[in-house]
Amino acid sequence: MGTLDWVVVGGYFFVMVAIGYWSRGRIKNIADFFTAGGRMPWWLSGISHHMSGYSAVMFVAFAAEAYRLGLTVYIWWALTIGVGVGIGAFLWAGTWNRLRSKHGVKSPLEYLARRYNVPTQQIMAWAGAALKVVDIAAKWVAVALLLQGFAGVPIWLGIALVGVVTMVYSVMGGLWADALTDFGQFIIQGLAGIAMFVAVAAHFGGISFMWEIWDQLPESHSDPLSGQYTMIFFMALFLIKTLEYNGGMWNLAQRYMAAPTGAAAKRSALLSSFLWLVWPLILFFPMWAAPLIVPGMEANAEQAYVEMGKAMLPAGMVGLVLAGFFSHTMAMVSSDANVISAVITRDMLPRLWKGATRLGEASQLQLARITTFLFIGLSMTIALTADTKGFVLKVVIALVAATMGPIAIPLMLGMLPWFKRVGPTAAMSSTIGGLLTWAVLYVMQLNKSEFVTQAVIVSWPLLVSLVLYLLIGLVIKPEPSADRAALVDSLQSDDERESVRA
């Protein structure tokens, strides 16, 4: 990287911190910090939802799979998310918003105490928080690997640099800072992605490379599913991503909660769905062509995108692409930190410390900022002490994808009217049973069991969790409740005046 590249990266960090400082003035209370007071425009909510859904992992682990296997990574990752979010626009987007507007909910898990009971809420809160801190550690490692590849910066310094900048604007500006930096990052990452796409197109002599490269690549590279990514894996991941990206990943639920009305939240979800279907194609085409430009990297494919950038981009543009990598990671981490802070301060701390319920608005806001700071600091510590080789893909697939189903199923299905009779027994059994299934399979995988493929470790916890939820909740022990039914019914439509205003 040259001087101009560093100027671009430094300018990017400065703008992100400046946005966080400016956003600080918009934060008057805890509702502003966690849900933007329900005043976020639908288009900003949609862009923020999209940007908060992926990170530099795409340019490390997923880019490596695109290099080695071709088309399949778009099919089982981006396509499942895009279609899943489109479905969720009609099932969940407005529902999340109405939890805030009708019931004053500020944390995605806050409603679980009423929908099921407090123990169910606490199990999901602790399991999800533990999962998220490891997930974010993988994001830090991913962006540090890219910074090391482009500029030779030591991994520990890369984690510290990006982490501290994210910490500053997240602690100051809350969800408003997250969303506004998401928008700025959307622009920067758009320019960076287009720059790489245009450079690759110029290398091959025009846009026709999009359909001509496949004849020069191994035949399997054009297969929708290949390698360890089977139809079972695809079907399991489709259900997981549908749940995850419609609120099972708690930070994405916040984007819907921050919109003015349920109808506005639905529009934001449809915008995010469109971006998920289209934008990853722009990012992946250079990686599908990469074996023809930087061949022989199968053994070190996690660095393939870095080598592409060095080979294809002029001075200044390398810095822009690197800023694009930062933008993805910082968008996801800042939104995760905000929602974990909401869960800890609204759902977990009051059960451990009764004084948390007696804090005034100013003290609650200060506590939220301290919690955000500590969460980011803990995730950075894990990243700094991790063995980075293969860490990113292992966490994203074997941990996050495999455990997301058991955590998300009671949370997401509990908002739908078809499952009003499902009570806390089914919810707790579903989460605990799914997580225990994952733990057993993970141990077997560590012991090199041939039975535990990627498809098995992703699909079995999901299947066990879903079967337990439906079988216990609808057949063995339904637990109907007038209060639960009234809560679920209230989430199905906006008030008439809100729909007109939207």
TrEMBL record:
Catalytic activity from the UniProt record: L-proline(in) + Na(+)(in) = L-proline(out) + Na(+)(out)
Membrane spanning stretches: 6-22, 42-62, 74-93, 123-147, 153-176, 188-211, 231-253, 274-297, 317-344, 391-413, 425-445, 451-476
Keywords: Cell membrane, Ion transport, Membrane, Sodium, Sodium transport, Symport, Transmembrane, Transmembrane helix, Transport
Gene3D superfamilies: Sodium/glucose cotransporter
The UniProt record lists the keyword Cell membrane: yes
Membrane topology of the entry: Multi-pass membrane protein
Compartments reported by the entry: Cell membrane
Presence of the UniProt keyword Cell membrane in the record: yes
Primary location class: membrane
Record InterPro entries: Na/Glc_symporter_sf, Na/solute_symporter, Na/solute_symporter_CS, Sodium:Solute_Symporter
Family: Belongs to the sodium:solute symporter (SSF) (TC 2.A.21) family.
Name of the protein in question: Na+:solute symporter
Organism: Saccharothrix yanglingensis
Classification lineage: Bacteria, Bacillati, Actinomycetota, Actinomycetes, Pseudonocardiales
